[in-house]
Design goal:
Blueprint lengths: L3 E2 L8 E2 H11 L6 E2 L6 E5 L12 E4 L63 H12 L12 H17 L6 H13 L2 E3 L3 E3 L4 E2 L10 E12 L2 E10 L4 E9 L10 H14 L5 E7 L2 E2 L5 E5 L5 E4 L1
Helix pairs in contact: 3-4
Length: 308
C-alpha cells in the first residue's frame, strides 16, 4: 500500500488524498496510475467515490505485477526529520493517513486518456533507489484537501475506531476520552496550527479569534439570491435554546464552478422543497449576538459540506 502515484510514467507525483480531492471537486477520473519509482501499474482505493470513507485513499499493485527491484512504492528519507509524522500513543486505528491541512483549491488537471503500457525494460535497482531518495529529500508529502469532506470523514473514522476499541456501553466515558485524545493528537493546519479536537466546534461554544469548522443542522430557505440554514442549539449551562443561522453567499457561483459547488447548490435547492433539516459543516469566523445567537457567513463553497 502506498500514498504516491503518477497518472503516466514520468509524470508529476501526487498523493492519494490530492487525487481524491480532485475527484470530489471536478469528478476527475483517471484510467491509469503508476508507481512513480518502478513504473508498475497501480489501482486506486477510496479515491473515486462520493461515499463516506473510513480508510485512507491509497494505491495497491495488481497481484500479478508486484513492485520491482527492491521498490515498495515509498520514498527513501535520508533524514528522519524529512519524514516527520505525528507521534503519539493516541492514533487512528483504521485511517492510516488523514488530511493535515486545509489548502486553496487547485485548478483542474488535464487528463491524459491515452492508455500507456508497461515499459519493456523497467528501471534498474540503482535508478529506482535514486528516484526514491530524490523524492525523499523533498520531505514528506503532507496530506491535504481544499474541501471539508475529507476532514469530516477522518474525524468520523476515529469515532468508529472508538466503538471498535470500546464496544461495551459501560465504557462510554472511556471511549469518548480516547476519541478526543486521538483527535487532539491529529494535527490540522487551518489559518493557524491546531488539531482535530480544537478545529471542530458547535454553535454553543465558538472561537472569537480564529476561523473554525462548525456543525449544526437546520432548514434551508432563500435570502434574496443566497441561502440561509436556520436551526436551534441548546446551551445546557444556561438552559436555553439559541438561534443558529448559516448564511451562504452564492455570488461566486456560476456555470464554470466546480462539480462540488454545483452539487451543493442542487442539494440546497432540493432541501428548500422539504420541511426536513439538513446537517451542515462550515468553516469560517462565527459571531454571537447579545442573546448568544449564532451567526456564520461563508462565501466559499469549498468551505461547506452538507451531510444528506
Amino acid at each position: 500500500m502506498s500514498e504516491l502515484a503518477v497518472t503516466h510514467i514520468g509524470g508529476e507525483i501526487d498523493t492519494a488524498w490530492n487525487y481524491r480531492t480532485e475527484f470530489l471537486n471536478y469528478g476527475t477520473l483517471y484510467t491509469q496510475f503508476f508507481c512513480p519509482f518502478c513504473d508498475i501499474p497501480l489501482f486506486g482505493c477510496n479515491i473515486d467515490t462520493n461515499e463516506e470513507i473510513v480508510r485512507s485513499p491509497h494505491f495497491k499493485y495488481y497481484s500479478k505485477i508486484p513492485h520491482l527491484n527492491g521498490c515498495n512504492g515509498t520514498p527513501i528519507f535520508s533524514n528522519a526529520e524529512l519524514n516527520k509524522k505525528p507521534k503519539s500513543k493516541f492514533q487512528p486505528m483504521t485511517m492510516s493517513s488523514y488530511p493535515e491541512a486545509l489548502v486553496p483549491r487547485k485548478a483542474p488537471k488535464i487528463v491524459n486518456t491515452a492508455v500507456q503500457g508497461i515499459p519493456i525494460s523497467p528501471p534498474s535497482l540503482e535508478e529506482i533507489e535514486i528516484k526514491r531518495k530524490n523524492i525523499g529529500n523533498r520531505g514528506r508529502n503532507t496530506p491535504s484537501s481544499s474541501l471539508l469532506k475529507p476532514f469530516i470523514d477522518a474525524r468520523i473514522s476515529v469515532i468508529q475506531d472508538g466503538y471498535q476499541k470500546f464496544p461495551d456501553p459501560a465504557y462510554e466515558t472511556k471511549r469518548w476520552n480516547w476519541i478526543k485524545s486521538v483527535w487532539a493528537n491529529m494535527p490540522l493546519l487551518l489559518e493557524d496550527q491546531t488539531n482535530y479536537e480544537d478545529a471542530f466546534m458547535r454553535p454553543q461554544y465558538i472561537n472569537f479569534y480564529r476561523r473554525r469548522i462548525y456543525n449544526a443542522q437546520g432548514k434551508v430557505s432563500l435570502d434574496g439570491e443566497n441561502f440561509l440554514i436556520t436551526g436551534k442549539a441548546y446551551i445546557t449551562k444556561e438552559q436555553k435554546d439559541i438561534n443558529v443561522r448559516l448564511f451562504i453567499d452564492t455570488a461566486q457561483f456560476n456555470d464554470n464552478s466546480p462539480q462540488a459547488h454545483k452539487n451543493i447548490i442542487q442539494i440546497l435547492q432540493q432541501q428548500m422543497e422539504t420541511e426536513a433539516e439538513i446537517k451542515w459543516y462550515a468553516y469560517g469566523h462565527a459571531e454571537l449576538n447579545s442573546n448568544k445567537d449564532f451567526h456564520l457567513k461563508i462565501n466559499c463553497l469549498d468551505h461547506l459540506y452538507l451531510k444528506v
